[in-house]
Amino acid sequence: MKQWVNLYRSELKPVKQRLTLSKVSTVLSAWLALLITVVVITQWQHSGVVQKNERLSSTVTTLNDDLSRFRESMSQRQPGQQLLAEKATLQQQLQDTRSFSQQITEFQRSRSASVSAFLHELAEITPEEIWLMDFSMDGENIRLHGQALNSEALVLWMDKFGQADLLSDKRFAVVELKRSEQGYQQFLLQSVRTSEDE
């Protein structure tokens, strides 16, 4: 079913409204008021941040000044008599400790040198028929433990002690002598004190 519309009726005609000066001024006033409000709020926040930064800077400056005064007072502070006495005692103890450590080092060096010289001489006079398994040096006391191919090789080896500089002035006694399962002579020699040593 068709319907006809009369486009020329008064209620269907478009209404033309003109933008008046009052409306334009109202819109501009609203935008200007909004802009001013935003600017005021921004400046207020900025001023708050600036004041906060100034307070923090002032606090930091005060702390730095206090720290500088504290350091200056500490540098100018004179130690008490008790502290000076303790310092002198500690310095003396440190010096004594260093001196003792140096003495120990020198003793170890001389001891090591004497042991090295002793082993060198012992290696020069020891034949292939003798196997030295262990030795000990305690001052003038020397102990030699090992194996010999036979008793004759042990006697000949002990005779060579007189040719060594470090062993020529010592006398050795056979503390232990026994035959091993392989047929070798196991021996233990120990230096003995002579009448000259006494």
Automatic annotation (TrEMBL):
The chain crosses the membrane at residues 21-44. InterPro entries: Extracell_DNA_Util/SecSys_Comp, PilN. It comes from the Bacteria. Signal peptide: none annotated. The keyword Repressor does not apply. Keywords: Membrane, Transmembrane, Transmembrane helix. The keyword Heme does not apply. This is Type II secretory pathway component.
